[in-house]
Structures are given as C-alpha cells and as structure tokens.
C-alpha cells in the first residue's frame, strides 16, 4: 500500500501529535529502548512544555544498534492502526556527488492509518565518540549536520510535555541553540510549516550557520576533549549540499 507524507495530506493538531507521541513512547519504553526527543519536539518540550502549534509531526532519536528491536513493534501496533517503515530517498556517490541511487534515510518513519506523523532518527556511535546518522552496512552518511556528541545522550534526563515526561538529551538548551541559533526561544514558522523563507535557516527551520567546533568547545567545558574525526568508510551521502559542511566539520585539522 502506498504511503504519503503527513504534512502533505493531513494537518495534525497538537492534540493528535501528543496522542501519537505518547503512544509510541509507551511502546518504546516497554521494549527498554534508549530514545530521546529531537528537533522541533524537543524545542516545544523545553520552550513551552507542549507541542509546537504549527508542527506537523514528532521526532525521536535512537541508536541504530536497536533497530531490529524497534521494528518488532510492528507486530504489536498494527492492530491500533500504526506501522513502522524504512523511508528512502536519493543519496549521492561520496566520491563524485554525481551518481545517485535510492537509499535508506537512516531512520524509521511512523504511520497512523497510512499517513506519516513521526520519525525515529537512527544514530551510530562513531569511533570519535560522535553520533552520526550513519549506516555501517550500506556506508551511508545521512544529514551530516545532525551530528552530535554522545555525551548528550549518555545520561538522558526528563522533560515535560503537558502532563507527562519524556526522555530528552542532557544540556538540551545548548543543542537547541546549536540547531536553531541564539534566538531559538523565539517562535518562528519554518517554510516546511508554511512560514516565510529566512536567510539564516533552511527549509525545515534549521540554522544554516551551525559549526561542529561550537559543540566541541561546549563539551570541552564539561571536561570532554573529543575532537570530531570520522574514520568510518563512506560511500553515499545525503544531501550533497552538506558535503562541504561534512568535510569542514567532521575531520580534525
């Protein structure tokens, strides 16, 4: 059966998102999976203790090592109208950036009645102690700018949305500033959510000027001196527009 992107077909209300978020969170807790809120869902949690009014889905992060266990949920959630799938898109040959093939997005897409409403972004713990959306089997580096240091998820803490608590990264306010800029606590509407184009932000509201050295400086203050130096083999990358960022940020000088 064909599936469609949620925000293209159905405008979820904050109440619906909260309901689905809570349902999937309960199921992941039952499996003992380590997961955490990401991006706009984390932003709403920290800033408002609620779902962002104009958001159209929710975002989790998890470790790629737990993928097989996560996918076992399909047997228990299908009766309630939910399912998990592997989303794909065109990734680019790492050496030339010209050849492209349809590849896994290194995430899990969550559907309710065949309409998407959430993502679980999957991270590999790389040898330099940074977490990247990297699939070691197909050697895909997906969305390099999503890289974070493992310290942020080593000791997860609780954050409140409405009347319940969810797992969130430690030092979440730094991550939000890193992802959304110094004005992260001022609400904006991204292009993907129907807002206007903003020079310093991408289509999804991400801050274009993020640099991994700022994260490195922050963790240095915590007594952690890991420098980004990705040594894993890469054959595919997405998007190719982040290739230059990857070269500049993922390798120690």
Shape: globular
Number of alpha- plus pi-helical segments: 9
- CATH class wording: Alpha Beta
The CATH topology annotation reads as Beta Polymerase, domain 2
Beta percentage is 25-35%
Structural class: alpha+beta
Q: Which architecture would the CATH scheme give at its second level? A: 2-Layer Sandwich
Give your account of this protein's structure.
With about 250 residues, this protein is an alpha+beta fold. It has a single domain (about 5-250), classed as Beta Polymerase, domain 2. The chain is built from 9 helices and 14 strands. The chain has helices at about 5-10, 15-30, 40-50, 65-70, 75, 150-155, 170-180, 210-220, 245-250; strands at about 35, 60-65, 80-85, 90-95, 100-105, 105-110, 115-125, 130, 135, 140, 150, 155-160, 165-170, 235-240. The strands form 3 sheets. Strands 1, 2, 3, 6, 7, 8 and 11 form a 7-stranded mixed β-sheet that branches. Strands 5-4-14-10-9 form a 5-stranded mixed β-sheet, with no helix packed on it. The longest helix has 18 residues, at about 15-30. It is globular, with a radius of gyration of 18 Å. The termini are far apart. Mean pLDDT is about 90; it is low at about 1-5. Pfam families: LicD (PF04991). This is LicD/FKTN/FKRP nucleotidyltransferase domain-containing protein.
């Amino acid at each position: 059966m064909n599936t469609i992107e949620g925000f293209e077909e159905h405008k979820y209300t904050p109440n619906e998102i909260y309901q689905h978020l809570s349902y999937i969170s309960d199921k992941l807790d039952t499996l003992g999976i380590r997961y955490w809120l990401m991006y706009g869902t984390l932003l709403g949690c920290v800033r408002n203790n609620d779902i962002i009014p104009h958001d159209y889905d929710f975002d989790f992060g998890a470790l790629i090592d737990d993928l097989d266990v996560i996918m076992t949920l399909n047997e228990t959630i299908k009766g309630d109208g939910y399912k998990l799938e592997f989303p794909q898109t065109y990734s680019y040959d790492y050496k030339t950036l010209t050849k492209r093939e349809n590849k896994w997005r290194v995430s899990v897409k969550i559907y309710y009645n065949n309409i998407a409403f959430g993502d679980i972004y999957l991270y590999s713990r790389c040898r330099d102690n940074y977490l990247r959306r990297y699939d070691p089997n197909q050697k895909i580096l997906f969305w390099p700018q999503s890289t974070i240091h493992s310290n942020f998820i080593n000791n997860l803490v609780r954050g409140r949305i409405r009347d319940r608590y969810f797992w969130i990264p430690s030092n979440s306010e730094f991550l939000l500033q890193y992802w959304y800029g110094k004005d992260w606590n001022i609400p904006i509407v991204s292009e993907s959510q129907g807002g206007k184009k903003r020079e310093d932000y991408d289509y999804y509201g991400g801050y274009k000027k993020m640099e991994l050295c700022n994260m490195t400086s922050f963790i240095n203050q915590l007594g952690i001196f890991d420098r980004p130096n990705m040594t894993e083999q890469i054959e595919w990358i997405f998007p190719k527009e982040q290739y230059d960022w990857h070269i500049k940020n993922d390798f120690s000088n």
